[in-house]
Design a protein that fits this description.
Layout (H helix, E strand, L loop, with lengths): L1 E5 L5 E6 L2 H4 L5 H15 L59 H17 L3 E4 L9 H10 L5 E4 L5 H6 L6 E4 L6 H6 L2 E5 H11 L1
Parallel strand pairs: 1-3, 3-6, 4-5, 4-6
Antiparallel strand pairs: 1-2
Helix pairs in contact: 2-3
């Protein structure tokens, strides 16, 4: 199939042929949902900590005598039933939230997302993308001229000018093909692939 091909100035010049298996695959919503849930879970860190019975600050003195008070028997104030007591099954910092993702499933999901971006006219191929100096204003103006206010740009290699000038722009992200992920592909309104990076993307997803 063919995708719109932009020249260095960001104007549509022609179409470029791409692989159907990657950019014209079936949209699998259930698989994409599963991959996104797994990807977000794998990003999660176990950084919370709760105390169990032996860790809470308390006295070991029996609150009241065993019998004769009419109240339920109690041994110490660290009981999980009491306010300020320890947790039965506390959350620990080494808790593992990761989900297993098969490589084949992940590749199919990425192809499905890319194909849907093509159908929605949100994916474009460009000949080259560069700026003369590492200035945020230059990059912002270039993107405005191209009509890109929220864009993910996939480059074949990082260039210092682009990296430095994009750090203060929350609506722009430059990544290499090996770092393509479902969250970034969906989050940005447009996806721009440099021509030299296109072959790398195809090699990774075949």
């Amino acid at each position: 199939m063919d995708i719109k091909f932009l020249n260095a100035q960001g104007k549509i010049s022609s179409n470029i042929e791409v692989k159907d298996t990657i950019f014209n695959s079936v949209y699998n919503q259930a698989l994409i949902h599963q991959i996104i849930v797994s990807y977000r879970a794998n990003m999660r860190k176990g950084n919370r900590k709760q105390k169990d019975r032996k860790e809470v600050h308390h006295t070991t003195k029996k609150p009241w005598r065993q019998k004769g008070t009419g109240r339920a028997r109690a041994g110490m104030s660290s009981s999980p039933l009491w306010k300020g007591g320890g947790r039965c099954f506390p959350n620990l910092p080494n808790e593992n939230f990761s989900h297993k993702i098969n490589k084949k499933m992940y590749r199919i999901a990425i192809c499905s997302i890319l194909s849907q971006l093509v159908r929605e006219n949100r994916l474009l191929i460009i000949e080259n993308f560069s700026i003369d100096s590492p200035k945020t204003k230059l990059l912002a103006n270039k993107l405005i001229d191209m009509g890109l206010n929220s864009v993910l740009i996939i480059v074949d290699e990082f260039k210092e000018n682009l990296l430095l000038s994009s750090r203060n722009l929350s609506n722009v992200l430059f990544i290499e093909p090996r770092y393509i992920n479902p969250i970034s592909l969906i989050f940005y309104k447009k996806v721009l692939i440099i021509k030299n990076a296109l072959k790398k993307v195809e090699r990774l997803l075949i």
